[in-house]
């Protein structure tokens, strides 16, 4: 039996999504024979209430010099991170020569706003190619994984940090105890750790099971975050819901006793208990909901194929790997996936091996139906694709339920 990555309690998977490749492992046909697979199986710890993967590929296999995700490909996310940076500068930042560290800073999409404001900063990014892109934006970036050792190195060179920030990163890091230890070392006495990630409450409410993939070793709740960082002399002092990624939560953490704990924390925990996020039975029901969603999506795709309709995927997202593999979607169901990321174009999707083509392939010959893998950017996409709608095209979505739009 596996052990909880946080508290060491015995855990077992509440479901399996089956044989799964690397979510961002886009590849060419000559690489098919050597493709890596593992079992994607989430578990719930009834001791610390942390939802986590039982097994996860090595970090070096997922985050490397050819990492396929660049944050700046989404205008909506760029605007979100600008707001995040400005909010931190206005509400949380110290006044005397402040120093900001961002974990998993990607291409500098958020930290560049601190750089432009002349604030001392350092991005920690393990993928060499995106770290280099950040430096090109004028963002001071170190290519490394963050933990206690890296925290000591940063302290020796820069001193302690007023703010440690992260966005859609903490859920990627298997050894969170080392991260929490590093934060406890690096953070100034009155500093803040501020991070946001996809929120477990939204995953459960919406059956958004595609938030579970190799990089997301955790799906957090306020209950689990308080437990994870609480054992390292830190406490959760505020939570702030976000609409990004189909529902995220921003967590604000400080040293115990140094800040007023806002009412939002108790309110979030009460809501989570009412939703059953602290009970194993909730995750058994989630498994049944996932199975029902899979059956409904495949019924829709098989019906479209039987009618000879052209279906194209929209957005070669990390999340789409979970959907295609778990549901059994193949090139027989989806002709290709349209994506604007150059490093994915001309390759095939992980596992399912559906061709990935540039956006022009979608726009120049609209399909009958677009399967919206990038559903968390639906508002931005629908506004952009009025031409597809006017052509008679329909969207097929699967979160929170399988349906056609319009």
TrEMBL record:
Keyword annotations of the record: Methyltransferase, Transferase
Organism, as annotated: Paramagnetospirillum marisnigri
Signal peptide stretch: none
Single Gene Ontology MF annotation: methyltransferase activity
Residue stretches making up the Methyltransferase putative zinc binding domain: 4-63
InterPro entries from the UniProt entry: Methyltransf_Zn-bd_dom_put (IPR013630), Methyltransf_Zn-bd_dom_put_sf (IPR038576), MeTrfase_14 (IPR013691), SAM-dependent_MTases_sf (IPR029063)
Presence of keyword Magnesium: no
C-methyltransferase domain ranges (all copies): 244-400
Official protein name in the record: SAM-dependent methyltransferase
Gene3D superfamilies: 6.10.250.3100, Methyltransferase, zinc-binding domain, NAD(P)-binding Rossmann-like Domain, Vaccinia Virus protein VP39
């Amino acid at each position: 039996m596996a052990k909880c990555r946080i508290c060491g309690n015995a855990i077992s998977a509440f479901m399996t999504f089956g044989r799964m490749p690397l979510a961002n492992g886009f590849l060419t046909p000559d690489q098919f024979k050597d493709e890596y697979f593992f079992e994607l199986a989430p578990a719930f710890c009834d001791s610390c209430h942390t939802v986590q993967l039982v097994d996860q590929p090595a970090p070096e296999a997922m985050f490397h010099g050819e990492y396929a995700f660049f944050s700046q490909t989404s205008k909506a996310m760029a605007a979100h991170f600008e707001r995040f940076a400005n909010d931190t500068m206005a509400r949380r930042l110290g006044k005397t020569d402040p120093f900001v560290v961002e974990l998993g800073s990607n291409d500098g999409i958020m930290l560049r706003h601190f750089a432009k404001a002349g604030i001392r900063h350092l991005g920690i990014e393990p993928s060499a190619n995106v770290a280099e892109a950040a430096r090109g934006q004028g963002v001071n970036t170190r290519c490394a994984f963050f933990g206690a050792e890296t925290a000591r190195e940063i302290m020796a060179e820069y001193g302690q940090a007023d703010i440690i920030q992260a966005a859609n990163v903490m859920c990627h890091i298997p050894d969170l105890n080392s991260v929490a230890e590093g934060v406890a070392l690096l953070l100034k006495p009155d500093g803040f750790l501020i991070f946001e990630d996809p929120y477990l409450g939204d995953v459960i409410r919406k059956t958004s099971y595609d938030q579970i993939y190799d990089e997301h070793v955790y799906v957090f709740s306020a209950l689990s975050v308080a437990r994870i960082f609480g054992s390292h002399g830190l406490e959760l002092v505020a939570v702030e819901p976000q609409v990004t990624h189909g529902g995220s939560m921003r967590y604000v953490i400080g040293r115990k006793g140094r800040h007023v704990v806002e009412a939002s924390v108790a309110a979030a925990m009460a809501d989570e208990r009412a939703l059953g996020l602290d009970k194993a039975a909730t995750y058994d029901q989630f498994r049944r909901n996932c199975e029902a969603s899979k059956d409904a999506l495949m019924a829709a795709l098989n019906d479209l194929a039987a009618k000879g309709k052209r279906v194209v995927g929209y957005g070669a997202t990390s999340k789409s790997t979970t959907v295609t593999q778990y549901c059994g979607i193949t090139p027989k169901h989806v002709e290709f996936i349209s994506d604007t990321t150059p490093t994915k174009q001309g390759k095939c999707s992980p596992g399912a091996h559906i061709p990935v083509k540039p956006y022009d392939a979608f726009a120049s010959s609209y399909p009958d139906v677009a399967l919206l893998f990038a559903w968390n950017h639906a508002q931005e996409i629908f506004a952009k694709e009025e031409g597809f709608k006017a052509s008679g095209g329909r969207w097929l979505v699967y979160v929170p339920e399988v349906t056609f739009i319009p």
